Amino acid sequence: MPAANGDSVSTLGVRMRKQRHRLSLTLQQASEASGVSVGYLSQVERGRATPSLGTLSQIAVALKVDVSYFIHTPRTQDSLTRADERPRFAVAGSSIEYEKIGADFPGHELSSYIMNVPPGYASEEVVHEGEEVIYILEGEIVQVVDGGEHIMRPGDSLHYLGSSPHSWSNKTDQPARVLWVGRMQYEQAMGANRIRPNGGATSSAFASSRP
């Protein structure tokens, strides 16, 4: 599903490359700061790969910009979110649609999303600081944490540290919905000198942590 603001994958890559050059960073330096491999960063810059929201957030911190520099993410000030009013968005070129259920009031530390994962989707493997919790609402997800594979179905949950290499995928022919909760302070760490996402991804995206 295309991003809400209509940005293309190539546009995302162009913005990423321009900001990296603006900071006079090599791909190697950006990789060390974000924890994302040089090869993957290069693919994103060339429009040949689409990062999860969590990975994009790590890249944003490394490049000292907010994730909104790359995509439009809805901001909600009220702590109450009605089911029919939940903000939705996607990363350009990604088939995952995110539903934001957390708020952005001052001092908040937790981030939370519902991820709508299409059949056949597979995330990149990620490592970061922090921790995350995922809960399967619908469908089936295969979550890999530190080499261990977990087949997760509705009602199953998993809580793990971001320092353990993790990835996930939907290997079925049916869509899945996953609740992700974690800490994504790196989204606001625009002035950070080092990229240490205190994340809660997706992802794998629960990217970040990482949705």
UniProtKB/TrEMBL annotation:
Residues 16-70 form the HTH cro/C1-type domain. Signal peptide: none annotated. One of its GO terms (cellular component) is cytosol. The keyword Protein transport does not apply. It comes from the Bacteria. Pfam families: Cupin_2, HTH_3. GO terms for molecular function: DNA binding; DNA-binding transcription factor activity. Transmembrane segments: none annotated. Keywords: DNA-binding. PANTHER family: HTH-TYPE TRANSCRIPTIONAL REGULATOR, TRANSCRIPTIONAL REGULATOR. This is Helix-turn-helix domain-containing protein.
